[in-house]
Amino acid sequence: MPIFEYVCEKCDHEFETLVYGSEKPECPKCHGKKLTAQLSVFAVAAKGSSSSASATPVSGCGTCGDPRGPGACSLPDPD
Question: What pTM was computed for the model?
Answer without folding.
Answer: 0.48
